[in-house]
Amino acid sequence: MVIALTGSILVFENELTRTTLPPHLSAYNPAHTASIPSVMEAFHRAYPDAHVTDLYTPWPVIPAYLLVAVSATGSQFNVVADPTTAALHPQPYTWVNWVHDLHIFLLLSPAYGEQVNAIGAAMLLLLCLTGIVLWWQGIARWTRALGVSLRSNWRRINFDLHHAIGFWTLAIVFWWSLSGVYFGFYKPIVAAVNRVSPLRGMATPQEAAA
């Protein structure tokens, strides 16, 4: 329930993030946007011992540079850069960040929180597979588990709702759980896929000549 609720909120993560930006930023203008090197230079001047792990460029929904950085002590912090002047604004940990970390890492360490979350997704995947086996009532009766009879007592209605909703939402819940397992253990999954269907003919990107 927590993952479903936070995931529903994060559908609007970009729009919500915009409401947390510092006031008085320059108006976003694609023709007059600060370059990425200028933003990085400003960052290194302000935080010489830190390094940037993620950088998001301005666009109409979030009209500012967003930088995720790690300090020399290993703590993570966020910085907003003005889209025109590249001036830096420290960004406090917002409620949107909290919802994001709850959904992805269960508020645990990024080093293992995603894997713990993926274990829960694997349990949900197992419930999907065992549930469809228990849902099957045989050739003659399988259609009875597709609907709900409201003329029964509340316990039977609850039982029928569980069967019917489980069947009609199976594809969605199955994909939620499968993708959750992938996000938590994507490296071994990608390695396994590459063994069966490796990428071929991929050229290594070349650095532009100075």
Topology readout:
Elements: H1 2-10, H2 13-18, H3 36-46, E1 51-56, E2 65-70, E3 76-81, E4 88-91, H4 95-105, H5 113-135, H6 154-168, H7 170-184, H8 186-196
Helix pairs in contact: 1-4, 5-7
Report the count of strand segments: 4
Helix content: 40-55%
Shape type: elongated
Strand order in space, largest sheet: 1-2-3-4
What is the average of the pLDDT values?
91
Helix- and strand-based class? Answer: alpha+beta
How many helices does DSSP assign? 8
The first-to-last residue Cα distance is 53 Å
* C-alpha-based Rg, rounded: 24 Å
- What profile does the largest beta sheet have? 4 strands, antiparallel
Poorly predicted regions are none
How large a portion of the residues is in β-strands, by DSSP E?
5-15%
What is the H-and-E element order? HHHEEEEHHHHH
Relevant terms:
single chain; 210 residues; alpha+beta; 4-stranded antiparallel beta sheet; 8 helices; elongated
Question: How would you describe the overall organization of this protein?
Answer:
This protein has 210 residues and is α+β, with helices and mostly antiparallel strands. 48% of the residues lie in helices and 10% in strands. The chain is built from eight helices and four strands, in the order H-H-H-E-E-E-E-H-H-H-H-H. It has helices at 2-10, 13-18, 36-46, 95-105, 113-135, 154-168, 170-184, 186-196; strands at 51-56, 65-70, 76-81, 88-91. It has a four-stranded antiparallel beta sheet. Helix 1 crosses helix 4 (95-105) and helix 5 packs antiparallel against helix 7. The longest helix is centred in the middle third of the chain and has 23 residues, at 113-135. The protein is elongated and about 70 Å long. The relative contact order is 0.10. The mean pLDDT is 91.
